[in-house]
Write a structure and sequence with these properties.
Blueprint lengths: L28 E2 L10 E7 L8 E7 L6 E2 L4 E6 L10 E6 H8 L18 E5 L5 E5 L8 E5 L3 E4 L12 H9 L4 H7 L1 H11 L3 H8 L12 H9 L1 E3 H5 L7 E4 L7 E2 L5 E6 L4 E6 L8 E4 L8 H8 L21 H17 L8 H20 L6 H19 L6 H19 L10 H4 L4
Parallel strand pairs: 6-10, 13-16
Antiparallel strand pairs: 1-4, 2-3, 2-5, 5-6, 7-8, 8-16, 9-15, 10-12, 11-12, 14-15
Helix pairs in contact: 9-10, 9-11, 10-11, 11-12
């Protein structure tokens, strides 16, 4: 995989977390009993702007058995789940203390993730013709079908909370902040690499070997191989950083999911379940046996030139049908680039209150059909935009069917099953639509 997927649409940068509440750094969270989670290391950083080799060093100390509280901004290294509970093993993590608290108190944590219905794997990792290793389907897959579940090999923050550098000395943070454009800025840039080294060092030998075998698209930029592989393959893990109302951003590396190659016409979607601390990868549109499982590394709603420019630093040019159209399967940049704004306008115009009017519902039905058609034409039917419009389309179908409009209830049920499967693909679980009777909303086959 040449670039961490999930970095798209909701663009996230590695900016330092902004303090929402000045009291947050002063408050502390209660440490869970040591029999709940043990072997936790506290990370401390020292900046050395005067040195030419390592501008930043890290020290790890065991969490004292008699500790009663931890600063929420402290960085902790641990394994999650604390001990193996199934065949998916554990993840080596560096987390802010506030994130650790939310994970350990998540409902049902730790639990095992769901398993595919088929006893044998529905995918294989093998060489492609021109893109290195890739993931391929070994069975036909329908929308929402579970391809695999996987715990990350490792997880570390992508944002630097400066108070984590000196959680017991807030006055030191201002010294760091005053020199961000100077030599201290270079030292701060090394913090993620030091966290990566700590997390990697606590991985099993098997997981370390799997990590080092991943693609490396940054062999000539002066980084260590460990950091270059991280930069090539990391995925943004928004779910973990936002639990509990926080604004932290984490990155993750996976053994198999990090092998997924790019296409501007993706056919899969992933979701992360905190309770099982695992990703679910599901088909977001039908996938044929032998077809490559692909994901868009870039923002899919931009022009071919802009997509290629975004992918260029990662050492390849996309040759999917949207980037290299044929007479039999043309592509239209005008349609593709219009999709994000059209979907947003659609959501604002045809909200649930507005479409109580049958005339508005009929107009929304027609607009939804056109949007769905355009997204299918551009290969965007595996994107979450398609799921959003499909949800509303189902609403229009049931509204018009109830009023003896243009749709039959049979057609409404057919579209509803598609919408339910799309929800399963993007959310990882089936959630009945609140505006459809439960007796109609359960079957998704």
């Amino acid at each position: 995989m040449k670039r961490g997927f999930l970095v798209k649409q909701k663009r996230t940068t590695g900016k330092p977390a902004q303090k929402k509440d000045s009291k947050r750094s002063a408050d502390s969270e209660t440490v869970p009993p040591q029999d709940v989670i043990s072997d936790i290391q506290i990370l401390s950083f020292d900046l050395h702007p005067e040195k030419d080799d390592r501008l930043c060093s890290v020290r790890t100390d065991p969490l004292p058995p008699n500790a009663t509280s931890i600063n929420p901004s402290s960085l902790l290294c641990m394994r999650l789940p604390p001990s193996p509970i199934d065949a998916h093993g554990t993840s080596s993590c560096v987390l802010y203390s506030r994130t650790k608290k939310h994970v350990l108190t998540a409902p049902h944590f730790p639990r095992s993730p769901p398993q595919p219905d088929r006893p044998s794997p529905v995918y294989e990792i093998r060489k492609t013709k021109s893109k290195g290793m890739g993931m391929f389907a070994t069975h036909p897959l329908n929308i929402g079908d579970l391809i695999l579940v996987e715990r990350p090999l490792l997880v570390i923050p992508l944002n630097t909370d400066l108070s984590a550098l000196a959680p017991s000395r807030p006055e030191a943070v201002w010294g760091y902040m005053s020199d961000l454009k100077g030599t201290t800025g270079g030292a701060l840039m090394e913090i993620p690499e030091r966290m990566l080294e700590v997390a990697f060092g606590r991985m099993s030998k098997e997981n370390q070997d799997a990590y080092m075998e991943l693609a490396n698209a940054h062999t000539n930029d002066g980084r260590t191989k460990l950091a270059a592989i991280w930069r090539t393959n990391k995925s943004v893990l928004n779910t973990l950083g936002r639990i509990g109302g926080e604004e932290d951003v984490y990155g993750a590396i996976m053994k198999d999911m990090s092998r997924i190659n790019h296409s501007c016409r993706q056919n899969c979607a992933s979701s992360f379940d905190v309770a099982s601390f695992a990703y679910q990868l599901r088909a977001s549109r039908p996938i044929s046996r032998g077809e490559e499982i692909v994901y868009s590394y870039c923002f899919a709603g931009q022009s071919t030139a802009d997509r290629q420019a975004e992918l260029k630093p990662y050492g390849f040019s996309c040759t999917c049908l949207s980037c290299s159209p044929t007479p039999a399967q043309p592509s239209n940049d005008t349609i593709r680039t219009s999709i994000p704004s059209r979907v947003e306008s659609f959501k604002q115009t045809y909200n649930f209150e507005a479409i109580k009017d049958p005339k508005v519902a009929k107009k929304g039905y027609d607009v939804a059909l056109q949007l769905l058609h355009d997204m299918e034409q551009e290969g965007l039917d595996g994107e979450e935009w398609y799921r959003t419009v499909m949800d509303m389309h189902v609403h229009f179908c049931f509204s018009l069917a109830a009023g003896e409009g243009v749709n039959s209830k049979v057609e409404s049920m057919r579209w509803m099953r598609v919408a339910a499967r799309l929800g399963l693909a993007f959310d990882g679980s089936f959630k009945p639509h609140p505006w459809i009777p439960v007796k109609f909303s359960m079957p998704i086959s």
